Amino acid sequence: MKLSLSVALVVLALAVLVESAPQDPTLTERFNNFQTQVETLTQDLTEKTKAAMEELHNSEFSVNARNWFKDTFENLKKQMDEAFANIKPQ
Asked: Where is the signal peptide (predicted)?
């Protein structure tokens, strides 16, 4: 009787221990967690890249370079128009 009672108590203790132990996440939960982490990472990376590109676009160097190219192209176009103004198509 004592043996069967002690075996029953051990089985009961193991059952309580197994139920109260933290469950390992299932494969589906791991994939969902991974998907969430990847989405967060890509969103953060997108925001940082967009901010860096905007900062580069609005930097003094970038603005000056664009203006220089614009002015140089306009001057070249003007010179080409003047040079070829006297030539008539045949």
From this structure: 1-20
DSSP reduced 3-state for 87 = coil
Q: Is the distance from CB of 25 to CB of 33 less than 8 angstroms? A: yes
Whole-angstrom distance, CA of residue 87 vs CA of residue 89: 7
Length reported for the chain: 90
Residue 90: what pLDDT? 66
Q: How many CA atoms lie within 13 A of 38 on its CB side?
A: 6
Q: How far apart are CA 24 and CA 5, in angstroms?
A: 32
Put simply, whether the predicted model's pTM sits higher than 0.70 gets the answer no
DSSP-assigned letter for residue 90: -
Cα(1)–Cα(36) distance, rounded to whole angstroms?
Answer: 55
Distance CA 60, CA 56 (A): 9
